[in-house]
Amino acid sequence: MTGPGTGQGAAGTGRASAERAVLRLARPYLGRLVGAGLLATATELAGLALMATATWLLMSAAGQPPLDRLTVAIVAVRALAIGRGVFRYTERLAGHDAVLRLITDVRARVFATLAAERGPARRTGDTLSRLVSDVEAVQDLLLRVLVPGAAAALVGVLAVAGTALVSGPAAGVLAAGLLLAGVVLPLLATRLTRRSADEVAPLRGALAGDAVDLTHGAADLAAFGATGAALRTARGRADRLARLERRLAATGFAVDAAGVLLAGLTAGAVVLVALRAGVGGVLIGVLAVGTLAAVEIALALVGAARQHTLLRAGLDRVAALLTAPVSGETAAPTATAPPAPGQPAAPGAAPAPGETGAAVGGGPHHLRLAGVTVRYRAGAAPALDGVDLDLPAGRRVAVVGPSGAGKSTLTAVVTGAVTPAAGRVTLDGAELSGYAAEELPRAVGGLLAEAYVFHATVRENLLLGRPDATDEELTAAARAAGLLDWVRAQPHGWDTVVGEEGGQLSGGQRQRLALARAVLAAPGVLVLDEPTEGLDPAAADAVLASVLDATPAGHSVLLISHRLSGLAGFDEIVVLDAGRVIQRGRHADLAAAAGWYRDQWLLQEAAERGYLALRP
Prior knowledge:
alpha/beta; 4-stranded antiparallel sheet; 18 helices
């Protein structure tokens, strides 16, 4: 289990590289973002001009001049007020259009990286935090930091230039005030909030993990008497997060108060300098109000700096995933070392020299293992030791053995999740590692251990196996897995929502759903890892026979099972123990010969006869 902060700063990403990773993905939308920045600048300029023009109009009107002298100013005020609203609306449209397009790409890339990870599993809550709140940090970086920050800086420069037309010394004072408001105060805000802000994102991820543990794991926690300890841990994190957020709020209030004070002092200084320079009359009021408006706009940089500080941890966590290679991509030679023999293949591992990462179809295939050895740690006993397995098109092989024999490792090897330390794994004569990782499940796949059931309808879960499947094919797959009667008994049928991780289903129904999805996918080599787990013996035999009958002609089957019933029709049964093949042959021969298989066959037969005799 990795902590919520895992990956922060990973892959050597520094603060600047986190932003670069995001902006690299934003390149296709650069024109839209620049347009949003220009519209934001136009919005702020319209607001500044509106304040200055309205001040001039009010002070001039106090002298009761002829109406024709005020007509232009009246029209300008109305135009600027309307224009400011139009600019703001179009800026939000342009900005959110670009950012939502970018967020789609970012979230897809983050999801692909998380899905391809072969290392220790992340906590569900932390994974959710990365996909939601951390990805939203990318949105906030663009919409709340870069766009308003650039607009405020540009408006400040133009405000100083406009003031210089009235009074050079006053423009110098305004420039000094804007530098304090737009540079010094943001740096101060960053320094005051950095330490607390860097703890917020990891704490939120940890708290999300605690929430998931306390809800989904309530029964397990209660069974082990750990509910109180889990609640205390979650409460401690929640209190820590609340203290950090209160500290950030207090710091923000102090900096905002300093900004208001600075705006007033700058306006007063500009007025004094302008008076000494001989500026008088209506222009003094325009300079005073314009200065207040300009400094207020510059103070947006304080908010941008504070927001950027709050986003730093989330951006680092996202950048670590954005810079990680995903399936089908080749990492730079210096980015990742090649996987150690027998270790899980890296998500973006490149094909072996001379190979192309070719795509592969779902038709019949010939899978072969020759002398495969897998070690998970140097010096440790091998999980697989010199295993040979031949699975030509149409052949059916079952692999059995005691717990810890290496059955799960064998499954990982044939599906490309683990690279052997020695030996070869070939598909149609080519190295398995040479095939594109995203295409390989179409050739070698099926029902693997802990198959995931999504919080969606039965139909949507099944269509993950083959999105273009027809209703007739869905029906056939569900019938083969023994799920069809249950589906038809539901009020909503195929549109029944199964709940998060299949929480609305029983264990047997969840297994049948995952099995139906594997049957529907129909890979060339159908791998079934404990397909009848959770089913009673009679149902298990019926479902296994039905699934084998539903397998397309020419497609091979690799069954991993602890049950020996139903294996009489298999072409070969391989018995593993401690990673080595200790027996192999057909069911009739193995059941007649002394050894592990016959002993287990007799024990299981007696146990299942007793179970059936006790059934009501």
